[in-house]
Design a protein that fits this description.
Helix 4 packs parallel to helix 5. The protein contains 10 helices and 13 strands. Strand 1, helix 1 and strand 2 form a beta-alpha-beta unit. The chain has 282 residues and is an alpha/beta fold. The strands form 4 sheets. It has a 6-stranded parallel beta sheet, with helices on both faces. Strands 11-8-13 form a 3-stranded mixed beta sheet. The protein has a single domain, classed as NAD(P)-binding Rossmann-like Domain (Rossmann fold, 3-Layer(aba) Sandwich), CATH 3.40.50.
Length: 282
């Protein structure tokens, strides 16, 4: 099976390329240096030339705060470009798996969000990613939209790498305790996305690791697994962050993987397992 990965140089894209190849499928990666996905012509030309069996769209403008000041670019990359990828995938008969985010929700729900809950994004990033969902699903079928959250992996920059560095430089760390979610690791997310592509599943799915924690609790676990005292991590509120973050964050980002369970997919691991694996590699 030939699978095209957009955003192949990102932290998720790089793990996807490895997972697809390890499974015996052909992985072809593109990124901004080879194909401009905001160009309809470039996207269609690439897909007609490659003619993949499936496309996993990881390309996105994910700098949440930067999106606030670059709304037009964010919409172009996270929204309009998804239309071009969807059109081109449909034209060559490729199954599309598109990556979305917990930021499509406003975070006010009591309890985990399921796939059928109504989105209400509060940031430019969230609104543009929701626009991308709508573009991906516009054809009505043949597309899987996978919302994920708090993504970390061996490649690229993420919270685990940041904390790993800071915990070796400082005696005290402060992180917010009033934002909760599911940390998700590319080592587990990539195989899930590959399976959805191979099985040609369609619909909206929440794909995360298991275990709901606050950022404060997540950092405590990172520090603990590093062999340091979790007491060095102190809780603060979002309102106490200095400087304040430009983009609002959902207080509740917990995504229930209900659609995957209903489809008979095996549950993902508790986040602490892939976290320990990642820390051993750093």
């Amino acid at each position: 099976m030939k699978i095209l990965v957009t955003g192949a140089n990102g932290q998720l894209g790089q793990d996807l390329m490895r997972v697809i190849t390890a499974a015996g499928d052909e992985a072809i990666g593109i990124d901004i240096d080879t194909v401009d996905i905001t160009s309809r012509e470039a996207v269609h030309e690439a897909l007609v030339t490659i003619h993949p069996d499936a496309v996993i769209n990881c390309a996105a403008f994910t700098a949440v705060d930067a999106c606030e000041d670059n709304a037009e670019t964010a919409m172009l990359v996270n929204g309009t470009a998804v239309r071009w990828v969807t059109e081109a995938s449909d034209a060559v008969g490729a199954h599309l798996v598109h990556i979305s985010t917990d930021y499509v929700f406003d975070g006010t729900k009591i309890g985990p969000y399921v796939e059928t809950d109504t989105p209400n994004p509060q940031s430019v990033y969230g609104r543009t990613k929701l626009a991308g969902e709508h573009e991906a699903l516009a054809n009505g079928s043949g597309v899987a939209v996978v919302r994920t959250s708090w993504v970390c992996g061996f490649f690229g920059n993420n919270m685990v790498k940041t904390v790993h560095k800071l915990a070796q430089e400082r005696d005290s760390l402060s992180f917010v305790s009033d934002q909760i979610g599911h940390p998700t690791f590319t080592s587990d997310l990539a195989p899930l996305l590959h399976r959805l592509a191979v099985d040609r599943r369609d619909g909206i799915f929440h794909g995360t690791n298991q275990g709901a924690v606050s950022w404060y609790e997540f950092v405590q676990e990172i520090v603990r697994l590093m062999g340091k005292d979790p007491g060095m991590v102190h809780p603060i509120t979002t309102a106490e962050l200095q400087p304040p973050r430009p983009a609002p964050r959902p207080a509740n980002s917990v995504l229930d993987n209900k659609a995957l369970r209903d489809a008979g997919c095996a549950p993902t691991r508790d986040f602490r397992e892939p976290l320990a694996e990642l820390l051993r590699l750093l």
